[in-house]
Specification:
By secondary structure, this protein is an alpha/beta fold. It is 37% helix and 25% strand. The protein is built from 12 helices and 17 strands. Strands 2, 3, 4, 5, 10, 14, 15, 16 and 17 form a 9-stranded mixed beta sheet that branches. The mean pLDDT is 93.
Amino acid sequence: MTELDRLIRSMIEAEGPMPIARFMQLALQHPEYGYYVKGDPLGVDGDFTTAPEVSQLFGETIGLWLADTWRRSCKPSPFALLELGPGRGTLMRDALRVCDRVLGFPQAMKLHLMESNITLREKQAETLGAYNPVYLEDLSDLPEMPLFVIANEFFDALPIYQYINTEAGWRERLIGLEGDKLVFVQSKKKVPMPLPEELPFFEMSMQAIAIVQLLSAHIAKHGGAFLIADYGATQGGQGDTLQAVSGHASVPVLEAAGQVDLTAHVDFAALAQVARRQGAFVPDVTAQGPFLQALGIEIRAAQLKLKATPEQAKAIDEAVARLLDPDQMGSLFKVMAIVPEGQNEVCGFT
């Protein structure tokens, strides 16, 4: 039992069952014991691997999208470029290697990062220090200028609420105690907000909705674009997707709080609806594979292979397959763009 496990149990004993969102917030972001405030969870020796760590091709392709979208936005200068949860800085490094070649882009860009992990901030300083990034503690501190945002595997780690449709009506799914063991329980109170009666189960992230609402309103007012890449469904909220991962394998959700990663699938439909309500345009969400192919990732891979050894060429092919294949990351991972209303041609989206 971890120190955070003990703390959570004492809170439940004192206050009663805990919302899943509260449990996730403590497990991931507790200032002393939270999973995301210490260490480096990425890579082969960590708990999971993200697309930028699979291959430089992912970040370079995102860079192409960013450069094209900036051009379609009439090349605003100055503008803020923000990455949410930049990890080791790998994606942004690879993207800016492309964007630095675009006339006027590097001079106009003001790099901003949002990162809670101290260890990863140190690695970002090594990777992106030349760009003098500004760290944001609160999104309300964004400068009033055009804003381009990249969020890769950020929203899946935001706390969620879960609800069960019972014979007595909708009830929130909570975390309680059975002896000294954490278990899922149901609230005795009826959920005060309307939920779709035709569904047996529903989950949502209010924090994700709040972030998209704020950033979409900023983009609708000042210009820019927002690209979200994550795993989930175009129609979410209809099933239990909460999971825990450690050492690249699934583990029990309610054990070892603070020592394992907790995630849930992103509800892209809900986020798109929120963005549109702020006056932004959202093209149809697409799968990661077709998005990367539309931006020419296979052409770039062929270019890299021209100067590669046979072993390097094989590694490139394997990385591209992992990013594109429907049975790997190509289908489960989705991509969504948010741009100002009227700017309805977005590269990579039909």
